[in-house]
Amino acid sequence: MKHFNAAWFIPAVGNILVPIAGVDHGYTQVSWFFYSIGIILWIVLFTIFWNRIIFHKPLPQKLMPTMFTKIKFFLSWWAYSFPISAITIATLLMYHSTELVFFKIFSYVLLSILVLMIPVLIALTVKKIKEKEICVEED
Predict the structure, then answer these.
(1) Which long-range contacts (CB under 8 A, 24 or more apart) does 88-95 make?
(2) CA spacing 20 to 30 A to 7: which of 1, 32, 38, 68?
(3) Dmax of the chain from CA atoms?
(4) pTM of the prediction?
């Protein structure tokens, strides 16, 4: 339990995103399979994660979900780029499916946020690498 952290959600999210490309390539059944596995993993991991946060020793600060309230930079900040990328792709797909102007505008807004976010994350990461604050062993 002491090694469990939010990074364990990455494979579950990856499984949920497989249908974005899979259905377009004709793999509908395979896409449903990956989506189903991803949803089940998400429910299980979400339950375990909250159990870990509530009943066990706190996560190290660099592994805590920041929810936009922490100021100190850790590599975990890169986790913000993943959901914004996913919702941008989903919004673009919704626009192509429905041709509603709302989805087109919303996808441009999300894409703009993402295009601004990535260089900021790169700059902060490079800065912290130069300051030797990344990949430091725990006390």
Answers:
(1) 88/114, 89/20, 90/20, 93/20
(2) 32
(3) 54
(4) 0.57
